[in-house]
Amino acid sequence: MRKRTDAESITAVFLCVLAVFFAACKSAPQGVPVKPLDLMEAGSSFYIKMPAETDPELVKRVLQSSVEGLNDEDAGKIAERITVIYTGLERKRNETLVQAVVSGNVPQIAATKLLKKRKDWEEASVYAKTADASREYIYFTKRDSGLKVAFPSNTLACLGCSVPVMLADYDNHAFNGDESHHIDDTVYEWLNGGGQQIRFYAVKPQSFLTILTGANLNLKLSYAKGFLVTDKGQNDQYLMTIEFEFNDVRMVKAGAGLLSLAFGLTNSQTQLTTPTHIVVSDIIINKKQLYKLFLL
Question: Whole-model pTM?
């Protein structure tokens, strides 16, 4: 994972690398297809899946906020190459650690050449060896931030502080038949499902609630997860569903009231599915609110 300051856009940190998709990169060993989630690290407190098809405009805005001078046309062409973005966030006192894997159509001819020409990026390699072959994976480190970027295949891009580990994992999956993953099974299954839904999972819900509401709500939650879909009747807004699992049944009633106040859920539907589990659905979020959340 890499460090960022609170002044930076969380999304911009990992999407800025997508600008080099036009320039391409050195052909890397391919092997069998590798699932993006298999390369994600454990340890993040918040995970999110963002399918590009769900909101191309969001992806375009993120790209333009990330890459100075990127016009609408070029941003749209880059967005067309993206299928889905997975990211993991771990919030610290004055920074957030970020990791990400991007799946899409990654042309492999010149990204390496482009980054080699830039003095603010440093090149390094990871080597994987088997009895009959040796494979080289190139990655680049931004000198001023420590951000590492790699393109292990023509469908994947990785970034974070642990990119060398991601590359080793990629090789094990692509060439050695490894089918394991690092993140918890429940998180993996949730993010892996949902089709074109924007999905998220808060492993540490206390931190998640603080970021989302700006309030320190101690509800003794075990986890929170949810998804967003475009409102078919109103294309400029999302409908969000969030599930909350409580560790203490005594907190459920009070927690439901506090959450309603914090999120303004008066028009949503709240359902108690088990004594410790609340599902809140039909939460209306204007897309401009979402763009603002990503500092766009």
Answer: 0.85
